[in-house]
TrEMBL record:
Role played: May nick specific sequences that contain T:G mispairs resulting from m5C-deamination.
Organism: Ruminococcus albus
CDD domains: Vsr
Coiled coil: none
Family annotation (InterPro entries): DNA_mismatch_endonuc_vsr (IPR004603), Restrct_endonuc-II-like (IPR011335)
Keyword Lyase annotated: no
Record-stated family: Belongs to the vsr family.
GO terms assigned for molecular function: endonuclease activity; hydrolase activity
Highest rank taxon of the organism: Bacteria
Keyword terms: DNA damage, DNA repair, Endonuclease, Hydrolase, Nuclease
Protein name: Very short patch repair endonuclease
GO biological process, one term: mismatch repair
Documented EC number(s): 3.1.-.-
Amino acid sequence: MADNHSKEVRSMNMSHIRSINSKPEETVRKFLFSKGLRYRKNVKNMPGKPDIVLRKYKTVVFVNGCFWHRHECEKFHWPLSNTEYWHNKINNNAERDKRNITELQNKGWNVLVIWECELKKRNREVSLNNLYKKIISNSSSST
């Protein structure tokens, strides 16, 4: 299937995709803040620049988009055009994610990933509460 947009329109669309402060990230941050958790955002000197770093709990949270990070869910579909580029791009992203998670874990960090699909209305409350419980459960081991 061919792209429905011209190169210029596609380029403009792609340039508007955020790498930080995305809507899913903001949703997670607002929820955690409302629960009294304080965190740092996008810490550049840590592997993978985690979206949320909770030092008190020695926990980092990545808020991953299903497409960009190859989540095996209904939201992820391989593009039908320029397939070689997209397979390389997305597979490289997933491999880099694995390396960053392993490096953080080796440094003693608890790594949590919440996916974009988990933040859709039907799943949001349960997913966010589960995330909160996982973070808090590290409290006894880190204090």
